[in-house]
Amino acid sequence: MTLSFFVDPLKYLVDLPSALLEQTSGAFSSYGALKKENQILREEQLTHQARLLKFAALENENIRLRALLENSFKLGEQVLVAELLAMNSAPYEHIVVVNKGTRFGVHPQQPVLDANGVVGQVFRALPLTAEIMLITDPNHAIPVQVNRNGLLTIAVGSGQMNRLLLPFLPSNADIRPGDLLITSGLGGTFPQGYPVAVVDEFTTQANKAFASITATPKAQLDRNRELMIVWSNSTPIPLTTVKPTPPTNEVQPHAAK
Q1: Which of 4, 137, 165, 176 is the most buried (most CB within 10 A)?
Q2: Contact, 140 vs 130, CB < 8 A?
C-alpha cells in the first residue's frame, strides 16, 4: 500500500502527456469535423437561398403572365406574348427587341401592350425578332382622347421613359390632372379604348395659344419582361364574289369513230 502510494502519482505523471495529447488531438479532430460540417451547411443554405430566389422569380413571372392572359381575354383580340431580349434606352431613342418576328406573323405598325396599357408599336420585324418603338420615343405619336369627355388630341414621346407630351391642346381645353387618356382609334394603328397615360400636369403659358401638358404612361415601360403584340379583329374581311361563267358558242368536237 505504501509503495503504491508513491508509484501511482508517478504513473499518472508519466501518462499525463499522452492523455493530454489524445485529448488535444480529439479536440482538434472535433473542431475540424465541426468546421467541415459548418461549411457544408453554409453551402447548402446558399443553394437553398438561390433556389428560393429562383422560385420567387418564377412566381413573379407567373403573376405577370397571368395578368397578360387575363387582359388578352378582355381585349377580345388575337394577341401574341413576346419576351423582351434587349432594350435601347439611349437619350431620345426608346427601342426594345422581342423574341417574336415575321415567322410568327409579326409585322410593322402592330400595337404592343402590357398588362397596364399601350407600350408602343412594332417598328421593324425580322424573321426571329422584332423591334418595338415605345410611346415615349420622341419620334412616336399616338392619337388619344380624354376618357372623361372624349376630347381628341395627340400624345407625343418626350424622350423620357415616364413622360408623354400633349403639345396641341389650347389653354382653355377641358382637360385636367388625373384624366385618363385612351387610344382614340384614329389613324388605324391602335384600336379604340386602350389605356395610354394619365394627365399629371396642366400649365397655361402667358401669351401662348397652347398649354403645357404632360402625362405619365400607364404601361410599365422600364419593367416589362413580357409584352403582348396585338392583331386587331376589326379589319374587314374582303368579300369574294364568284363570277358567272360566260356562255360559249363553240362547237364541241365529236369523238373520232
Answers
A1: 137
A2: no
Give the sign of the dihedral formed by CA 98, CA 101, CA 104, CA 107: positive
Helix and strand numbers, DSSP H then E, in the chain: 1, 12
Rounded Cα gap, residues 57 and 52, in angstroms = 9
Let me know: does 64 contact 193? Beta carbons within 8 Å: no
Report d(CA 95, CA 93) in Å as an integer: 6
Residue 213 exposed, middle or buried by CB count within 10 Å (0-12, 13-18, 19+) = buried
Which amino acid, residue 181? L
Q: How far is CA 44 from CA 24, 38, 39, 58, in A?
A: 30, 10, 9, 21
φ and ψ at 71, to 5 degrees? -70, -30
Question: What pLDDT is attached to residue 257?
Answer: 38
Q: With 0.70 as the threshold, say if the pTM is over it.
A: no
Bridge partners (DSSP) of residue 81 are 228
Beta bridge partners of 213: 202
Amino acid at 213: I
CA distance 230 to 113: 8
- Cα 221 from Cα 96, distance rounded (Å): 10
Amino acid at 110: Q
- The single residue listed with the C-alpha cell 401638358 is 213
Phi, psi (deg, nearest 5) at residue 224: -80, 140
Binned at pLDDT 50, 70 and 90, residue 57 comes out as low
Q: Does residue 225 carry a pLDDT above 50? A: yes
Whole-angstrom Cα distance, residue 182 to residue 196?
A: 5
Furthest-apart CA pair in the chain: how many Å? 152
Residue 65 has pLDDT above 80, yes or no: no
